[in-house]
Amino acid sequence: MESWGEPRSKTVTWYDPMQTAAMAADLSGLEFLTAVAERRIPGAPIGGLMEFGVSSVKDGEVEFTCLPDESAYNPIGVVHGGLVCTLLDSVTACAVHSTLDKGVGYTSLDIGVSYLRPVTSASGLLTARGWVTRRGRRAAFSEGDVRTADGKVVATAKSTCLVFAR
Prior knowledge:
Blueprint: H1 17-24, H2 29-37, H3 45-50, E1 52-58, E2 61-66, H4 81-97, E3 104-115, E4 126-135, E5 139-147, E6 153-165
Antiparallel strand pairs: 1-2, 2-4, 3-6, 4-5, 5-6
């Protein structure tokens, strides 16, 4: 039997997302995301799994931070692109969410991601920012980028969200 070194482990904690969704029902998108950023409402379980969350929010723009570790690596020794894509999907969609009135929902229709450089645990704290480029009645368009601790852009994205009454 081969020796792969000592196994590592990670504990993931999250809260019931349906309770969080119920809390969101009486808030505008900006009010909801502000409450998440201020930790008055728990964030999405995926954020706990991938260790990212809302760090700032304003109308039409959000910022998340993420500190990737080796548990997010792919077999070639860099952070899996899926983590970066998930981060971009989250910030571009939440930028749209921040513009929505109470009782209005959204879902991602598409996302296009361009990867510009690899990410490792040495990249430090990642900052992902999403911003709305056009908000229509039925569709909203947004863009985003992810930067390393020293400000280098590692990926960019463009996204479209469907907007609907809940």
